[in-house]
Design brief:
Strand order of the largest sheet of chain B: 15-12-14-13-17-18-16
Radius of gyration of chain B: 23 Å
Number of strands of chain B: 18
Structural class of chain A: alpha/beta
Shape of chain A: globular
Largest sheet of chain B: 7 strands, antiparallel
Number of helices of chain B: 15
Low-confidence stretches of chain B: none
Shape of chain B: globular
Largest interface: A-B, 30 and 31 residues
Radius of gyration of chain A: 21 Å
Strand content of chain A: 5-15%
Largest sheet of chain A: 5 strands, mixed
Structural class of chain B: alpha+beta
Strand content of chain B: 15-25%
Number of helices of chain A: 23
Distance between the termini of chain B: 25 Å
Mean pLDDT of chain B: 95
Strand order of the largest sheet of chain A: 1-3-2-4-5
Oligomer: heterodimer
Helix content of chain A: 40-55%
Mean pLDDT of chain A: 89
Amino acid sequence: MLPHDQVIKEAAKCSGCGFCLSVCPIYQALGVETLASRGRMDTVRGMLLGELKLSPRMEEILSTCLLCQACEASCPPGAAAHKVILEARHRAVKEKGLPWVKRLAFRRLLKDRKALARALSLVRGIQGSPYHKKLPELRHLPTLFSALAGGRALPPMARKPLRERFPELVTPAPGVNLRGRVGFFSGCYSEFVETAMGDAAIRLLAREGFQVFFPREQVCCGAPALYSGDLEDTLEIALLNAGAFSKLELDSVLVICATCGSGLMEGYSIVAQHLKGKDKALVEGLSQKVQDISAFLSARGLKERLCLPEPMKVTYHDPCHHVRGQNIRGEPRELLLSVGNLSLTEMAEPARCCGGGGSFSLNKPELSVEIGKWKVQDILSTGAQAVVTSCPGCILQIREVAQREGAAFRVLHLAELLELATPQSCMQDSPEQIRSECS
Amino acid sequence: MKKALVKEFRKILGAERCLDTPEDLYAYSHDCYARGKPELVLIPRSTKEVSAVLRLAHREKVPVTPRGGGSSLCGATTPIKGGIVLATNQMNRILEVSQEDRLAILEPGVVTLKLHQAVEALGLFYPPDPASYAMSLMGGNVATNAGGPRCLKYGVTRDYLLGLEVVLADGEVLQTGSRAVKDVTGYDLTRLFCGSEGTLGVITRITVRLIPKPETKRTILTSLATVEEASCMVSRIIGAGILPTTLEFMDQAYIRTVEELMHLGLPLEAGAMLLIEVDGFQEAVERQARVVEQFCREQGALDVAVARTQQESDQLWRGRRTGTVALMRAAKLMISHDATVPASKIPELVAHTHQVAREAGLKVVIIGHAGDGNMHPIFLLDPSRQGEMERFDKASRELFRFTVEKGGTLSGEHGIGLEKNPYLHLQVNGIGMRTMRAIKSALDPQGILNPGKFV
């Protein structure tokens, strides 16, 4: 997936100092160096250099990583561990192939929204049935099948996918100053599961004066395939998405999921190196256009001063793919602090991984929950009524672990929080009125 | 290792904490300095388990190399004779923090930072702060007698030990010391094990002395024209009755290299910089900071900055903290020595280090803990250059010789391990070695504990 020399160069940066062990959630949970940051870097380098084989233990080492990049942030020589892991996973896929569940999901469902919708309605049918409680949770569809063994709770599926709730072009209400044209990348979770965050984001953008293009040809961002080391499917997915947005002449393509954002930005720029000519330009073009909604809005500033109907104490959780993946830390906080009636209390380690890690939570459910508990504890310690974040994966993880722990705080996407707040000038109007104006 | 023996170890610890795949052996084979090859990795959770493991290892004459955080810079924890790596990181409970007796009792796998946090929450203080404190383990700190920047004022790990529980080579469990600060009963076995680098026993429980947490601190950064002036400043400050918490030294080569990499606005014309921290009660700290500032000005310092807030302090620390990180990123290989001389010899050591490096065609920059003479010449090496490592070894030998000649020591805080073992005789003479060997053979007659180190 990445050039051999480049990966070896990254891996060689590791001096073995072990500073990363102070932040690796896996080390903190398991206390086994082989499976944690430094040992993983070391053994994976050993494999890439041919000193170690792709043994079952090596596969375990590769899969027991959240790709949270905490190790990188603490690494004095700055080794990009996630690139090394990604390449090693890619080689594992080339050598051993994908597990059948992933193969089915990546090959078929990620690229086809209709097939995905059909599969999901099947899931919904099962959810409505008495078997519901026996089923695990669901995030990206690829994890659906492996999820059958995971034993985790299942969030309710949306009755109507996001795309059926909005036209392809959402324009600001008459009289609102036009500030630009943006594309909207929905991501699987807000498309099919919790549409509320997508709803909120689109309305907010329209209210703020942006034309929002929501092209129907877009599919999954491909992050599940990418982070599994599946180059082939990621490439096909990237081309589909690049095609969907290419002709629209947009200022930016906005994401509301930190993982989608990292996949589309860094991931696509990596896989694009395997393309040529027009295709390469297309995928790189999309990769460069993508921006997180919080970065986009905080750079431009909110037009109207927002205010919550009642005072609310919140805390903010930094998704790994924001704080380390995209260097986003201040932007969501700036937006939060601009909201009236809101007080922001920082938790002890806001940038510590929640333990979700996409399909990690399904492959390693117990480990994932254990790491999630620390996050829930940190949130509880702030006494906040709600934790706000910018990644559906984190939302799902934190909410589920909080439920298990009997914690009562709300878990909200930043866009949903901003939706709860109303422009101060229209405080008298009901939120419904504002919504209908905008959509 | 025989399969039957592995099976016996597995019986003691269970399969999950008895690891022998090639990957596990690879991951536990090294520290920053060197790689060895263990045959088995064991992760005990109790003194009883450590004892059972050692009893068996003793019976079978299997080497055992204890391991903490694995952050050693000198190969102290590298298994060079095969056998077992005994990782203590899962024995990580803080068993007691007593405000009344001002002590803490903990297991060896407690991370140094976690101990700091736990005691500071109660208004207490455990000063030793090795650079790796965020991940180093207390067992390793004791086994290497770890230091750190704060040790000028507060002393090193050794100075905070009240007692230890140590599993000896044959599996017997030894208790040393007590809960009392004053304790003159028998030989001071506690200090014998402190700094023994795992060659005499496996530390399984540690009792440390705590002191009240200082109320506040001030950070002062000053640059001076020459190393001699910096050295003079150091003796003037201490001579005036001020014992700073920290007195960090940076030489011109360091300043210029870091400035080139990072553009922090460091003074390129300065011969040396000093980062000085004083702590204590608010009023006392104010007064000490004023005196230090005044001395700096009288000494003709090129500039003086005093930080009043944590943020300002962090700003002043940037050149020192992020500077070393930048060096690490820029160099192909960075090796830091910790040769330590009496404080008065710092200018000579700095000059001699640069001369030796120049003659060997090597790049070196120097930082250090100026107050206690603990210098860190950092060599920025490129192993791919013809003969570079041989020249480095030769330069190292000369520097070790010089350090000892000036009344100093091979290692102020990193330890001996594999790196400085060949030079041990420079400082420890025949009688010294004989005494050490007598102790070793009394406690570990089979020589199974961390073999190949020390004696």
